[in-house]
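Good morning C.,

I know you're traveling, so I'll keep this short. The sequence:
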Amino acid sequence: MHELVGALRSYAWGSRTALAQLCGRPVPSAHPEAELWFGAHPADPAHVRVEQGTRSLLELVAADPDRELGSAAPEFGGKLPFLLKILAAEEPLSLQAHPSTAQARAGFERENRARVPLDSPMRNYRDENHKPELVVALERFEALAGFRDPRRTVALLRALAVPQLESFADLLAAQPDSAGLRTLFTTWITLPHNALATLLPAVLDGCVRYLSGKGKREFTAEARTALELAEAYPGDAGVLAALLLNRLTLEPGQGLFLAAGNLHAYLRGLGVEIMANSDNVLRGGLTPKHVDVAELLRVLDFEPIDLPVILPEPAGDGSVRYWTPAPEFALHRFDLTAGSAQVPLHDGPGIVLVTAGTIRLLQNGVELMLGRGTAAWISAADSDIRAQAVDGPAQFFCACVGSAH
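The C-alpha cells, ready to paste straight into the viewer:
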C-alpha cells in the first residue's frame, strides 16, 4: 500500500473553494479546481509515493501488471480499468454523453486515421474505452440526466404557455416515444441562429412568467434551471435541449449511474465519481469546449428513462456498496466512528479515498495515515489491510474492480 497523489484538473466550471477545503489547502484557490483524478489514465495519471520519491501509477501498473492488477490484468489488457475522481462543480458542466465500447473504438480509429492529435481540443475520442460512470454526492448535487417521459415534457412545454412552443409540444404529443424525442432534440440542437434567437428568449420569458405564478408549481426546478443555464451560456441551443431531461437532486450519500448514450449535464455540487478508464466525451452545448452535434447524435440513446437514485446497500463487511452493472469498477463506502474496531479492506487492486476525518491503514505492522482528501493505492499483491478511524469519526471510499473479480 502506498499514498496516492491525485492529479488536479482546472476547468472553468470548477470551484475555488470545494476541493481546497476538502484537501486542507488555502481558500480560495488561485484557479477554479474541477476534478482530482486518482487513476492511471494517460491524460493525467496519479502518482504513487515510493522511497525514491513519486512514480506515475500508469508506469507502475505497466511495469508489472500481474503484480499490481492480479487476475484483472488479462481481462483489461494489463491496464487499471477504472478512474476515480472527486468532482467539484460550481457552474454547469457541458451537455454531454459517452460512447459505447464499439462506438469508442470506431471513433478512436477514425480520428487516428484522420491524424487528429491526441491532445487536440478538436478530438472527440482520446481512447478506445466506453465510459459508464457513477457519481455519489458528498453534498447536495444537482444534475440533468436522461430523457424525461415525453408526456411529462409535453406538460412542461404547455405549462410555460409560450406560443412558439406549441408546434413542438404538438409534435411530441403526437409521437411520445424515442423517435419523437430524437426529432425534437435534433430540431432544437441544430436550429439556425436566427430561429434560435427568436425562440430562446420567448421560452425564457415563459419560464419567468411561470415562476412568478402563485401556488405550488410542478416544474419550478426545470424552469429555474433553464434560466440559470441561459445566464451562464446565453444564446446556446443546449438550454432548450435541457428542457427534455430529467432534473435530479442527490442528497449526500445518494448516487447516480449513467450508461453509454445517456445525455446529461451536472449542474453543481461535490461528489465522488468512478468510471471506466476513459476520457471520451461527446458535447452538444453549454460549454466553451469543442462541440460536435453530429457525433453526439450518433451515440445518443433517446429512449426515455426514469433514472433511479442509487442508494447504498449493506455489503456485510462494515461498508455499503453502490451497485452498478459495470464490470470495470465497484464502489464501497465506509463510515467509521471514533474508537471503532479495525475493518478489513477488499483485496486489491483498489484505491482508498478519504472524504472525512483521518484513517490509519495497517498491514503487517506497517501503517499509513490518510487525512481528508488523500488516497492510497492498494495493489493485488497487498493483502490483509485494515482501516481504523483516528481521533474521531471518518469516512472513506474504496474503489475496486467489479464483482467478477
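Safe travels,
E.
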